[in-house]
Model the fold of this input.
Amino acid sequence: MTVLRFLIILLLMLNILALAAIQGWLGTPAPSGEPERIANQLNPEHIRLSSETATGAPVAAEPAEQTTAASPSADTSGQLTSEAMPSPPDPTPDPAREAEPPTLAATAPMPPAAAEPPPAEAASPPTVCQAWGGLSADEAERLSARLRRIGVTAARSRSETPDSWWVRIPPQRSRAEAEARVAELRILGVTDTYIVPEPGPTQFAVSLGVFKTESRARLLLGQLRERGVRNAGIEPRMTTTHRIQASLPVAQLRNVEQAVPGVGAKRQACTR
Done:
C-alpha cells in the first residue's frame, strides 16, 4: 500500500509540473497564439534568391509590356495567313534518282519439292494368247461363256469350210429322169448309186459317193470317166465353223479347256 500511495502522489506532482510549465508559472512565457507565431518568423527583407547570391546582382524583372508585346493579342492570334507562313519549296525530281531502277530484294530460289515416288503397281499375272478353231456353234458358245466368267473378252469369228466332198450327178428335173440316169450307170458298170429324195436344191441328184478328203473324191471321179460317165462332178459340202481368240492368264488356260471338252485339240496360233 505504501508503494502504491507513493506512485499516485508522484503522478499528481508530475501533472502539476506540466500544468505549471504550460501556464508559464515556472518563469517561461506561455505561448500567446497566432500573433506571436507570426512575430517569431524570419524577416522577409533578409531573404535573398540563389541567383542573386551567386552573381551578386539583382535579377531585373522584365516589364509586363514586353511579355504582352511578344505574345500575339487575342484578336490576331487566329489570323495567320498564307503570306505569313512560307510555303514549302516544290520538290524537284532528281534525274539521277529517277533513272535508277528500283532495287529488288534478291530472293533465293526455293528448292524444288521432292517428287513423291509413284505407287508400286501390283504385278499382273503372265498371260498367253490362245485361239481355238473349227468349233461348232455349241462349242463356241460354251467357250465364250467360260472366258467371260473369268473376266476375259474373246474375239469370235465365223467361216464356211468344206466338211466333205461329194461325187454326184447334178439334180434332175424329176425322179423319173433320175432313175433313167441310174439305169445308164448300171449299164456302164456303176452300181453304187443313190437318188436324193429330200426337197431342196439337191433333190433328185444321183449320189455316187461322199469322201472326207478331196483327193479321194477326185480319184473316184477319174475312175467314172474311164467308164464313160461324163456328167458326174465333185461338190464340196460346206459347214459353218467358229473361231475364238483371247488373251488370258496362263494359270486359267487349262481350267477353260477342261470346262469345254474337246476344245483342247482344236488349238490354233493367234493371228493379228
Observations:
- The mean pLDDT is 77.
- The beta strands are 127-135, 155-169, 194-195, 206-211, 233-249, 267-268.
- The longest strand covers residues 233-249.
